[in-house]
What does this fold into?
Amino acid sequence: MLNIENTTTLDINQQTLETIASTLTPREIDLTICYNLTIQNYNCEYRGKDQPTDVLSFPLDGEFKHLPLGSIVISADYVQQVSQQLGHSLDDELSLLFIHGLLHLLGYDHECDNGEMRAKEETLIKQFNLPKSLIVRTEKN
It folds into this structure.
């Protein structure tokens, strides 16, 4: 189950996101869509980085299967900006960020793994016919 709190005007295709989530976990996920100012506040408070970012993940302890897997926060500003820059749909960009955040909730970490997160992300991107992954895009910058 996907609990969405959308504090923006961004239209969300909840069914697509629920389909993605259900392929990876039966657990509940909280998703917040917000603007840059809100995600910047979270990024500063929880990561010590006083700047907006595209997606944040907050996993909960995995031993309690009855609790949500965790929370994902996505910036609608990033979704709109990047989808326009790269020429793909808002739904595609939101799905890419959701996959990225969800993989972090599941314990993947591209900053310290040996490519496992990138490989899993690429598999999901192909499965859902999405454009280039977030990890691939950031590696090229």
About this structure: Residues 90-105 form the longest helix (16 residues).
